[in-house]
Design goal:
The complex is a heterodimer of chains A (322) and B (288). Chain A contains 14 helices and 2 strands. Chain A is mainly alpha-helical and 322 residues long. The longest helix of chain A is centred in the middle third of the chain and has 27 residues. Chain A is globular and about 70 Å long. The two termini of chain A are 26 Å apart. Chain B is globular. Chain B has a two-stranded antiparallel sheet with strand order 1-2. The relative contact order of chain B is 0.21. Chain B is 75% helix and 3% strand. Classes of the chains: A mainly alpha (322), B mainly alpha (288). The interface between A and B is large, with 40 and 42 residues.
Chain lengths: 322, 288
């Protein structure tokens, strides 16, 4: 029906098999490995959702923490009155609306404004939430009591990651995906062939924001007590940027390559050298810019291309540029 | 009245920091997100000079500004020039410089947290009453403001009345054409970046005389400076000064009338208004 090529069918199959395999993990371990895997899957979902927008547009979005925090807060506020699955949908809707507003204000003009705007967005939302909370109630935080265990959160995040992958895959095949490819290559060309560039970018940002907010909502029961500084932690935004770029955003699975090692490294650093996390983050940014500008996947592709060239020099000329 | 004067006094330092950033972005084309860390570093150096050697912060400026100039020149030459050379277009350089200066931001902030810890610091300098229009203000704030005005005036003179300054403005308008009239663009850009760093450091040293600072507050100041730069129009000195005034007054107003916890919200409110109505800045002309 959708006209999948054998290669695409194979990739979808591999993806589904990997997710099914990963879903077995809680059967073997309930302690440290499960806990770090929750982190890995959380960042996998966040990074792929981030790359969904920032990959094709090359806009560095730092709004992740804002969407994530809104997601956790919608669960924190509603958990007493509404069923949990409904809250996840509400969180996604709030994320999308927020992304739409931010996008409408900034994505019509040059990309720098967008970066700057998202740079302080989490802090702005945090200030507003804190202020509203102190006006409305006396408590600073919210309690989230659920029946949810670490395994449930893990499975839900895994399902979410699968959904993000599937969405990215479908978008890449759609008109919107084609429009984004043209915009990413040359925005002026895109405008001249009649693509509403601002609209396409805003839609994509909204999808990305909805997924990120949903990830926040899923993780909310893990905190038990939600406070503005932990929900809107700006570090989340920066870690997502680093992991996604470290892996590379040219391939759908690229961010994953960055997420797995970097989550483990950050876990090790923050538990053993908590005062050095900033320095590691700084060095990671510098490494991305100076050593691996296209991420590890970009590096792999380069090696692969060189290897192909050596084995079959004639075939290279026929290959389409990516 | 009280609010307006306090706001204006605050805006002096904001203007210096924003002028530093506007030079770095407008002339050297580097969106320096680590700018706030220069400011914080200057705060700490001024603190150290004053408490350790009893050097008056105003005299300290004579040490801090040249040091910041040299260090920023070094940063530009080592870290940022390769990016300028590598970039194929403006957009690429923007993304690269944003990521690289994020790296600098975290690296510097991490080092300062290691060196000084995370707690807030301040020192007492000229903490006397100064009466103005029937209200009293801290003398240190007034002195810092006057010093900022002097420095900004000096910058204006340099940019609009000297050959080197004119070259700087030419590069800001169009680097390619500036090259044609025998301006060494690479050198001018490095100079502008270093000068921007020195201005920011002056802002930091002056700020430290009346403000409680800590190692991780740089980001907030970068944010404010960025918003001032955009409000005023990139590379526009008059615009930056006016925008700093507006921001200083708006912030003081919100902090004293509504809630001190909402200053960033006030800043952002202004930012959104500018983005919606005058994205080219207050004095900027609409792009053709």
């Amino acid at each position: 029906m959708m006209g999948l090529t054998p290669q695409e069918t194979k990739n979808l199959g591999i993806g589904a098999a990997l997710i099914a395999l990963a879903a077995l993990l809680p059967l073997f371990d309930q302690g440290f490995y499960l806990s770090i895997s929750v982190n890995i899957v959380l960042y996998a979902a966040l990074c792929t959702a981030w790359a969904l927008f920032s990959g094709p547009t090359h806009y560095v979005s730092l709004a992740t923490a804002a969407f994530y925090g809104l997601g956790t807060y919608s669960v924190g506020l509603g958990i007493e009155v509404l069923p949990y699955p409904l809250l996840l949908l509400i969180a996604a809707a709030i994320g999308a609306v927020m992304a739409g507003l931010v996008g409408a204000a900034t994505l019509r003009i040059s990309g720098v404004y967008f970066v700057i705007f998202t740079f302080g967005l989490a802090e702005l939302v945090r200030q507003l939430v804190t202020w509203t909370q102190t006006k409305v109630s006396t408590a600073m935080g919210l309690y989230v009591f659920t029946e949810m265990t670490e395994s449930h959160i893990y499975w839900m995040l895994l399902a979410l990651t699968g959904a993000v992958f599937l969405t990215s895959f479908l978008i890449a095949r759609s008109r919107l995906g084609f429009a984004m490819t043209v915009i990413g290559n040359d925005e002026t060309v895109a405008r001249h062939v009649g693509i509403d560039t601002a609209r396409s970018k805003i839609i994509l940002f909204m999808i990305s924001g909805a997924f990120i907010a949903m990830a926040g909502a899923i993780t909310a029961p893990r905190y038990i007590y939600i406070e503005p500084p932990s929900a809107f932690n700006p570090m989340i935004s920066f870690l997502v940027v680093i992991m996604a770029l470290l892996g590379g955003t040219r391939r759908l699975w690229g961010p994953l390559v960055g997420v797995i090692p970097f989550t483990i490294v950050m876990d090790f650093i923050s538990s053993n050298f908590p005062n050095h996390t900033m320095i590691v983050v700084g060095l990671a940014f510098l490494a991305i810019v100076y050593l691996i500008p296209h991420g590890v996947t970009g590096l792999l592709e380069k090696v692969q291309a060189r290897w192909k060239q050596r084995s079959a020099p004639a075939a290279v000329a026929k290959e389409k540029p990516a | 009245m009280n609010i307006i004067v306090t706001g204006i006094l605050l805006s002096g330092t904001y203007a210096l920091v924003a002028l530093g950033l506007t030079l770095q972005y407008g002339v050297a084309r580097i969106m320096n997100l680590g700018n706030g860390e220069t400011l914080v570093a200057a705060c700490f150096v001024a603190f150290w000079l004053y408490t350790g050697f009893a050097i008056n912060p105003l005299v300290g400026l004579l040490l801090i500004a040249p040091a910041a100039f040299a260090i920023n020149w070094g940063i530009y030459a080592v870290a940022l020039q390769p990016l300028v050379k590598r970039a194929k277009n403006r957009g690429q350089l923007e993304v690269d410089s944003i990521l690289a200066t994020f790296g600098l931001l975290f690296l510097l902030q991490g080092l300062m947290i290691l060196a000084f810890g995370g707690e807030y610091r301040s020192y007492t300098f000229l903490a006397e009453r100064f009466d103005l229009f029937g209200n009293s203000y801290g003398l240190n704030r007034v002195v810092a403001f006057l010093a900022a005005v002097l420095i900004a005036g000096g910058l204006w003179f340099f940019l609009y009345r000297t050959r080197q300054g004119t070259a700087l403005r030419a590069v800001a308008v169009d680097p390619n054409s500036a090259n044609l009239v025998a301006i060494d663009v690479a050198r001018t850009a490095a100079f502008a970046f270093a000068l921007g760093g020195a201005l920011t450091a002056c802002g930091g040293a002056l700020l430290s005389t009346f403000y409680t600072f800590n190692a991780s507050m740089g980001v907030v100041f970068t944010m404010k400076a960025l918003i001032i730069v955009i409000m005023g129009g990139v590379g526009d000195v008059r615009g930056a000064v006016l925008a700093a005034l507006i921001l200083g007054i708006a912030e003081t107003f919100v902090a004293s009338v509504i809630d001190p916890g909402l200053t960033l919200a006030a800043t952002y409110g202004l930012f959104i208004l500018v983005l919606l109505f005058r994205p080219q800045g207050i004095f900027g002309r609409a792009p053709t």
